[in-house]
Inverse folding.
């Protein structure tokens, strides 16, 4: 539609030649001419040539459409394959991130438990584990154990 008619005709001819239409049409035309040689200019011969040409055009078009459909299917299959690869990569990244978060969380729990254990041990060592000072505790006389001033 519109544009250069010479370029349009060239594109049409390239399409017809890509489907092998012209060769097949020429072979059929020659066969019809040979079969009806004495009466080539008859209406029956003209009708046979038109029917043959239309049949060849339909066959060529169907073959070409089949090629295009194969290309379309290949493209769709490729897109599905790439989508599957992308999904697989995303799932692997999510799995790795979840595993990393689990390791970090477990490490934090162990670190917290270690700190709590250390603080508990320090409290027991320095405070007898009761939270009371050895100065004025309710045990004994209130003097430091082993101190020379004893009961002062």
């Amino acid at each position: 539609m519109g544009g250069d008619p010479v370029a349009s005709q060239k594109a049409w001819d390239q399409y017809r030649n890509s489907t092998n239409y012209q060769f097949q049409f020429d072979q059929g035309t020659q066969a019809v001419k040979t079969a009806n040689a004495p009466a080539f200019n008859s209406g029956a011969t003209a009708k046979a040539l038109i029917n043959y040409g239309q049949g060849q055009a339909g066959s060529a078009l169907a073959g070409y459409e089949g090629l295009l459909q194969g290309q379309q299917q290949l493209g769709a299959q490729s897109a599905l394959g790439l989508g599957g690869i992308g999904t697989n990569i995303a799932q692997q990244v999510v799995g790795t991130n979840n595993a990393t978060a689990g390791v970090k969380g477990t490490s934090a729990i162990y670190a917290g438990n270690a700190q709590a254990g250390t603080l508990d041990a320090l409290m027991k060592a320095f405070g007898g584990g009761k939270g009371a000072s050895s100065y004025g505790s309710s045990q004994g006389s209130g003097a430091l154990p082993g101190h020379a001033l004893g009961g002062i």
Residues 43-127 form the longest helix (85 residues). The two ends are 119 Å apart (CA to CA). DSSP finds three helices and no strands in the chain.
